[in-house]
Amino acid sequence: MPTEPRAQHPFYMHEAILKQPEGFAHAVRRVIEQLATSISSCERLFLVGIATSYSNSHTGEVQRIFLFFTM
Question: What whole-number distance in Å separates Cα of residue 10 and Cα of residue 61?
Answer without folding.
Answer: 44
